[in-house]
Amino acid sequence: MRQQLWDATGPVRERGLPVTWVRPEGLHLTLKFLGEVEEARDAELRAALAEAGGAGRAVTLEIGGCGVFPDFRRPRVVWVGIAPEPALELLQDRVERAFAPLGFPTEARAFRPHLTLGRATREARPRDFNGLETTLAGIAFAETVAVADLDLMQSTLQSSGAVYQVKHRERLS
Asked: Which of 28, 46, 167, 169 is catalytic?
């Protein structure tokens, strides 16, 4: 699915926009961003992940439809959407609740599931994105995927973008 999405979104990348694109292997759905965390806390993070995932079941996601955050006048993030799914919202809520006692406050914003395709560079100007909305509307991608794992990820920023590594994996029942 990741490679199919990469291929389908080629026309957007071909526009030469001031965007750092996420490579196919880096595409992921973030349920909770923890930020910088000391490695000494790995055991408690794994326990929280087990708590969050233990009551969960595999989730089927419908992926499709592209957009940007915050808006097309000044896009910062280019994404592909994930259709609302109650089981996913429950899983995300369990993750929030499991990590809150560890000092990771619950997110104030509503959960908007998506896969980040790219992030605008610092030097990007609004005029650089003229026509982006039309290009994204022309992307024909729709896929259904089953998600059976909940991963604790580590991201390392490099000049070519973030590199992701699974630190711990919890199987959803």
From this structure: 28
Q: Is 114 one of the catalytic residues?
A: yes
The whole-angstrom separation of Cα 163 and Cα 153 is: 10
Number of compact structural domains in the chain: 1
Q: What is the pTM of this model?
A: 0.93
- Burial class from Cβ neighbours inside 10 Å (0-12, 13-18, 19+) for residue 37 reads middle
Q: What is the mean pLDDT of the chain?
A: 94
**Which CA distances in Å does 132 have to 13, 43, 82?**
10, 43, 20
List, in sequence order, every residue forming a beta bridge with 164; answer none if it has no partner: 155
CA-CA distance, 118 to 156, in Å (whole number)? 16
168 in active site:
no
What CATH number should be reported for the domain holding residue 115? 3.90.1140.10
Choice among 79, 114, 115, 136 that is catalytic: 114
Containing structural domain, residue 68: 2-171
